[in-house]
Amino acid sequence: MLFIAQDMREPRSCRKQADVLFVIESATSTGYEYFRYYILGFINDVIDQLNVDTGQTRVALSDAAQV
Question: Which of 4, 13, 24, 50 is least enclosed by beta carbons within 10 angstroms?
Fold first, then answer.
């Protein structure tokens, strides 16, 4: 189950730098469509709220098996 803080839904200005790491489970039992829609959709929604284009935030993605 995924939880998103209420603050992330409200636009706000933040000038602090951040490094964000998404660690995902690559189990094939959930299927590609679930992964694409829910997991990647969630990651895209979070990234849309960050200052990635200004260089303030760096984002990485890792497979849980590699951590």
Answer: 13
Q: How far is CA 26 from CA 8, 34, 35, 37, in A?
A: 26, 11, 9, 14
pLDDT in tens, 5-43: 555 555 556 567 889 999 987 666 777 788 888 888 889
Question: Is 44 part of any domain?
Answer: yes
Looking at the 3D structure of the chain, how many domains does it have? 1
Contact 20, 50 (CB under 8 A): yes
**Which residues constitute the domain of residue 34?**
27-67
Examine residue 12 and state whether it is found in any structural domain, yes or no.
no
Q: Is residue 56 part of a domain?
A: yes
- Tokens 């209420």 correspond to what residue? 6
Name the residue with higher pLDDT: 66 or 11: 66
**Which candidate, 36, 33, 37, 26, places its Cα nearest to that of 66?**
26
